[in-house]
Amino acid sequence: MNKALSIFSLVCSLYFQISVTSGQSGRLESEYKLDIPLSEVSALWSFIKSNYALEHFTFNDMNLRGQESVELFIDQYFDEPNLSFAEAEISLRYRKRFKDDILLKELVQLKTPYSKDKVIRNEIKFDVDRKKNFDDLFIRHPLLRLLNGSDTERMRYHLADFGLRPEEIQESVKLKQRRSRIYISDNKGESIATITLDEVNHNSFPFQEYAELELELNEIKFTEASDEERILMTELNDNIKTNLSKNFPNLSVDQRSKYRKMKAMVDESFLSKVYNNMMWICFGCIVCFSSLFFIKDHLL
Fold first, then answer.
1. Residues 147, 131: Cα–Cα separation, whole Å
2. Phi and psi for 208 in degrees, rounded to 5?
3. pTM for this entry
4. In this structure, how many other beta carbons lie within 10 angstroms of the beta carbon of residue 235?
5. How many other C-beta atoms can be found within 10 angstroms of the C-beta atom of residue 153?
6. How far apart are CA 55 and CA 78, in angstroms?
7. What is the pLDDT of residues 60-74, one digit of tens each?
8. Which tens digit of pLDDT belongs to each residue from 148-190?
9. What does the alpha-carbon distance between residue 13 and residue 221 come to, in Å, rounded to a whole number?
10. Is it true that domain 2-268 has CATH number 1.10.238.10?
């Protein structure tokens, strides 16, 4: 566990350097994620809040403040019938973001692998602009109906790199996610780092769930910081990781996307298979009972 977490600083440094120098059309983000046993979620978040969600605390002469925020996300994921998105670790979703039961934002997000270890991913965002022309060929398409003409072409361009076509996309799993986050800022109010706990639930029976934790340095602050400030920020992040791994040794690294992780849980679930094939099961039962009654009334 400690060895796995110790490479996070190196990954962050690489990520920020690439973000500044690369020519990617989206935004590179570091998604170094830790899987949390569900039985430890409550204790873990209480520990994080008691240590970092404070009006004032210090670390290596830095005066810091931690502020908690809780939001709700509803994510509809998309894939091709052969699940090529899941296999390629590509996430394509239509997201609704809520806070205090108020819809704050809708957007479409495409995340594609950037580094081989999946720690660094390229994220492209699209504003939701629902088609209003009923003569449009994509007015009923589950995804493209949410995008305007230029964004449809932009989506097609990014998917072409992976041999994928947006016209072949269909709805896949739908997730409900409760996000608890601690924003750590300095005495100037500038964000330094975030600690994020995501509690994820499948939106359909039997409602599978999992939880994961993500640690991030603020990419803008890190990029603009001096060498001394970067060292302090990295040391703060290392301190948080060490503190968490010491008190919660069952945390484990899991770099799978949320979509692939939940899709695997659904595909391996007997109850999900029964639920997803309920129509055919009911049809089979009707045929079976009809046959029995026919035999009883006409042949016996």
1. 7
2. -60, 155
3. 0.78
4. 14
5. 11
6. 41
7. 888 999 999 999 999
8. 889 999 999 999 988 898 888 999 999 999 999 999 998 888 8
9. 12
10. no
